[in-house]
């Protein structure tokens, strides 16, 4: 994988991770959502009125476009495991931005993911 292709794949991963963080930031002020037939439309409108939700959805759209270009350049069996880097990015960003806990098991899991991606990228 060339550096340019890796950068493209990493951009897709970061856009996807950013989308998750924006979605979380968008629903945080709304509290726990309860959805049923009686409030489906009002809840949907309330969620879509949050700018981080719209930005997160936009990040998803752009990430799919970037991902498609990346897949045209590299085997899916090499590219797809790179998506797991998003777990590490999200865990660290959620700790930093939202104060979420990162206990020893999560750290161990992130290290395993990083090791797995390294092994996969070398084959």
Describe the structure.
The protein has 123 residues and is an all-alpha fold. The chain has one domain (3-122). Helix content is 77%, strand content 0%. The protein has 6 helices and no strands. The protein is globular, with a radius of gyration of 17 Å. The mean pLDDT is 93.
Q: Return the average pLDDT rounded to an integer.
A: 93
Helical stretch tally: 6
Overall structural domain count: 1
Cα shape? globular
Strand-pairing-aware structural class:
mainly alpha
Low-pLDDT windows of residues: none
Q: What percent of residues adopt helix (DSSP H or I)?
A: over 70%
- Spatial extent as radius of gyration: 17 Å
Major beta sheet summary: none
* Beta-strand segment tally: 0
- The N- and C-terminal alpha carbons lie at a distance of 11 Å
Strand content: under 5%
- Helices and strands, in order, run as HHHHHH
In short:
77% of the residues lie in helices and 0% in strands. By secondary structure, the chain is an all-alpha fold. Helix 1 packs across helix 5 and helix 5 runs antiparallel to helix 6.
Helix and strand arrangement:
Elements: H1 3-27, H2 40-48, H3 51-71, H4 76-82, H5 85-98, H6 104-122
Helix pairs in contact: 1-3, 1-5, 5-6
Which characteristics define this entry?
6 helices; 77% helix; globular
């Amino acid at each position: 994988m060339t550096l340019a292709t890796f950068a493209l794949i990493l951009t897709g991963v970061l856009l996807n991770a950013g989308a998750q963080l924006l979605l979380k930031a968008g629903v945080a002020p709304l509290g726990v959502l309860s959805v049923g037939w009686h409030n489906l439309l009002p809840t949907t409108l309330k969620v879509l009125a949050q700018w981080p939700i719209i930005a997160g959805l936009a990040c998803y759209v752009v990430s799919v476009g970037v991902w498609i270009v990346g897949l045209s350049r590299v085997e899916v069996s090499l590219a797809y495991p790179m998506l797991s880097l998003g777990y590490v990015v999200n865990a660290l960003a959620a700790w930093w931005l939202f104060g979420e806990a990162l206990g020893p098991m999560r750290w161990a899991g992130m290290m395993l993911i990083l090791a797995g991606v390294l092994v996969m990228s070398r084959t």
